[in-house]
């Protein structure tokens, strides 16, 4: 059975173990972080997505062949005034998605700065994915695919271009991360069908295997277009 990421609730839990991982999204404002999460968790896209204030928390699961990965997703605000809060969210994270806009070179430069920050300050074993969003606007591209792929290869990052608007590669992105995360049991853990909480500060989410999860988010008035 192929690994899948489903965005609707329902279906019995996997017979295998459930691993919970904290995942954080980082990147400039208006690159589409919130839209990526909304597409992954709810299967929705809003043309004018309100800006995140601080951070929003959502959950979603990805079912692999013998295990289920439950993501606890922190979608952080991209505005510079919130940058100082970022360590609060990426501290203890096992995975990070750094998002840039393929039509905005400066957002790619900022993504590189986030990579450097995580490499210095985050969990040394963190899985980092670099994501070029708004792939549906390829005719307005300023960041070449080959340039970003070469940088990701150099830094040992996962890399995909995505479109939250069309849904291209969104599930594939989270699936690639789920596959790369280590599925190791804490000492003394045994048995089938149990949850292995990899993040000590994890908040238990609702729903079964591959079920949708949700969270709350504060939003500033006046949304910015997100793809």
UniProtKB/TrEMBL annotation:
The entry's keywords? Endosome, GTP-binding, Hydrolase, Lipoprotein, Nucleotide-binding, Prenylation, Protein transport, Transport
Q: Name one GO molecular function term.
A: G protein activity
Q: Which CDD domains match?
A: Rab5_related (cd01860)
For biological process, the GO terms are: protein transport
This chain belongs to the protein called small monomeric GTPase
Residue numbers spanned by region Disordered: 204-227
Stretches with biased composition (Low complexity)? 217-227
**Cross-referenced PROSITE patterns:** RAB, RAS, RHO
The compartments listed are: Early endosome
The superkingdom listed in its UniProt entry is: Eukaryota
Q: Which reaction does it catalyse?
A: GTP + H2O = GDP + phosphate + H(+)
State the EC number(s): 3.6.5.2
* EC primary class: hydrolase
The record's section on InterPro entries has: P-loop_NTPase, Small_GTP-bd, Small_GTPase
The answer to whether UniProt assigns keyword ATP-binding to this entry is no
- Pfam families, A to Z: Ras (PF00071)
The family database entries (NCBIfam families) matched by this protein are listed as: small_GTP
Q: GO CC annotation: what is one?
A: early endosome
Q: Could you say which protein family the record assigns here?
A: Belongs to the small GTPase superfamily. Rab family.
